[in-house]
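Q: I have 774 residues here and want to know how they pack in 3D. Can you give me a structure?
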Amino acid sequence: MTAIPSTRERREPRVEDDRLVRGAGRFSDDLQLPGQVFAVFIRSPHAHARIKAVQTDAALRASKVLAVITAADMKAANVGSMVRHPPVVGRDGTKMATPFRPALAGEKTMYAGEAVAMVIAETQGAAIDAADLVTVDYEELPPVVDLETAMRGTIELFPDAPGNLCVDWPGPVPSEENDREVARIIASAPHVAKVRVLNQRMVVASMETRGATSVYHEDSDSYTLYACSQSAESLRSQGAAIMNISPEKLRVITPEVGGAFGMKTPFYPEYAALLVGARKVRRPVHWQATRSESFVTDTQARDTVTEAELALDENGKFLALRMRHICNQGAYVSTAGVNINTNNFARCLPGMYRIPKIAVSVACYFTNTVPIGPYRGAGRPEANYALERVVEEAARVVGIDPVKLRRKNLIPKSAMPFRTAVGNTYDTGDFPGIVDKALALSDYKNFNKRKRESARRKRLRGIGVSCMLEHAGAMPMEEASVAFEDDKLIIGFNVQSTGQSHATVFGRLVASKLGIDPQQIEHRHGDTDLGLTGFASVGSRSAMCAGSAILRATDMMLEKGKKVAAGLLEASEDDIQYRDGCFEVVGTDRRLSLFETARLARDKGQSLDTKGRAEAPLTFPNGCHVAEVEVDPETGQVDIVTYTAVDDCGLPLDRIVVEGQVQGSIANGLGQALTEQAVYDPANGQLVSGSFMDYGMPRAHNMPLELREALHSVPSTTNALGVKGTGEAGTTAAIAAIMNAIAHAIPNGAADHMDMPATPAKVWEACRRAFAPR
């Protein structure tokens, strides 16, 4: 297994930092191509409406307007459905419903914000003005906004989705016999804990909004799309299928990306319209979303309800778990939108616990809201939250300390590899060790002293524990490349860095392996012309999948190099070894540097340039997070006074980057626990929290006053690097830790079943109930 020195020891800045902090980064809106024109979209103000007519004449007569693109243009261009989701088989073999999603709505609009038309003009101002001249005649229809209304099925949104059901999924290992056995155990168990938990809908709100520029090449009848993404190749494969063209006819280039979190994985409707528009006007067409557009067009997240039942014996041993998970899928099926609520959700069970029997099922329903898509964690936070909340409830039901109950049921290190009841195999892990380290680092044993000190200041203090396990990887195959340009080694990747420090981590990894200066390495990504296949930078997969691929490419390059060096040094290939940046003949001083060997090989018509492909099966990052909060009962204000995170990410490639990923993901989880919620008006389907004035993004003052982090690394055995992934750990663990802490702080069970977000108003009301006369 390969590791590079910790940046805490090296004290070196990230490779990316100098360029980015100086403002030299180049993002989607920085692109300026010759002859570039601008697009603005006309969007439906209604959540559900029939389109009777679209009048474009006035807009077309406006100054500097080049075209107005409508659904008719998309049909003429043979653009297909935007839905590109792998099949998910429902109960009794039924197929998942995947209603046609148009790039531009032509018959009906299914959510407020759906694009109906696109104006192209010489300037952005002219396009904005002309968009106001496009008239759409709508016949407004009653909307379906929430899960309860969708499940009633009184209003059916699609003929091919009866009762608005997208899929009724029977679980990862469907078995009626298993379901009956779980039901029997729950019915006869001495203790059963039951919870119903809600994961509210969230807006992703990446720092950089989505943007794209399309170019049509008339001479080759092909396109170039400059677009923010999490993999240029992944975006191209979706886009080519939607546009009904061969992949070779579409080049995708992704510049630097200012945050993605899964949301920038799909090929969005705007991109298809931009490609059609570029072909029509024969000029590059650029569009950058406004923040208001992003609120109603970017895929949103969560919006689930989970019912969990945990059966225990008389001593508190876990016997069986049953979960029923229901999701508001939004208006259409987005990329991975159903998978995150089925496979992603179920694979997280049973977490760090030994639970012999599990039954899990999921139902996804359509509504007139923005489609749900991947967002940091993507099914993992929902599963872990339900599990940790029902474990906390079980401690109350049985009358056992929550930590003692968890410890009693942890899977021991000696049981690894451990086969779970849902079919996963945990290859490694030290769950008792990680819990012990978290409790020690959080000073759990002295909590009551701190609670008494808070009480003297008329504050309520609580502490909450969240044991976390998630799966990382998915889509195991990834490709990477190494190539020589003068005295530079170019390492190429399909996965897109969107803030994960790929240039730093992978560059130093390869430099360490080859024994060369990291400054001799240049990182490239974000261009399908690199010819690299794979999937997106999602699911904490980049380190294990792309890292394994670059190691494979490097090993293959060295094998080529040994053959070339043997000829150049007039020695047997068996006598050639690579060491400290050079090929050398063993036992002699005859050697050639790596770069000299590459140059001489090129002179002889040979090349050391190499592509390598590797597969890295699932890994299972895990951890234990402890939140300690103070609550002001007079205002409902919650302060996170300390937050402790101990994580097993496998072998860390760069500790500072790992710490930063954990801190960022904690901020995501904290936002869900305390501040964020996308709110729709149930009467008309309008997003009423459609700006940062109304949507509660977490601020610096919401972050923990003290953040304590530590690693408890147990290398994975499923990939060459021993890594497990870390980018979603805090998001997955934080919500339960914080909500458990709030419930612990407020007495008399008044906050035991509080739904997120725990806003001051909710917390204040819980405090009133806690201290009300009985």
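Q: Anything worth noting?
A: The radius of gyration is 27 Å. Residues 542-568 form the longest helix (27 residues).
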